[in-house]
Specification:
The protein is an alpha+beta fold. It contains four helices and four strands. Strand 1, helix 1 and strand 2 form a beta-alpha-beta unit.
């Protein structure tokens, strides 16, 4: 499952991730790119723990503004501060 900048629009993100988990086949992978702002997702380490508690494995939050994908200055210029890639497996 792949989502680009979409999950932040769901008012109940946990319900959206439960539905994603429900429809993924065993071993299925999800990759989400979004701006994981505190106002939309809360504390991301807590959010990652919640995903693991739901049953997801190998959950990883990858900062896309640390130079691998773009520099922090580019992220700020494009209004993408907080941009990250969230991945996991069922």
């Amino acid at each position: 499952m792949l989502s680009l900048n979409g999950f932040h629009a769901f008012p109940d993100k946990e319900a959206a991730y439960r539905e994603t988990y429900r429809v993924l086949k065993k071993g299925g992978t999800f990759a989400l790119h979004d701006i994981f702002s505190h106002s939309k997702y809360g504390d991301m380490q807590t959010f990652v723990k919640k995903l693991r508690d739901m049953g997801y494995r190998q959950v990883e939050l990858i900062d896309t503004t640390d130079g691998k994908f773009m520099k922090k200055s580019e992220a700020a210029w494009m209004m993408l501060s907080g941009s990250a890639l969230l991945t996991g497996r069922k």
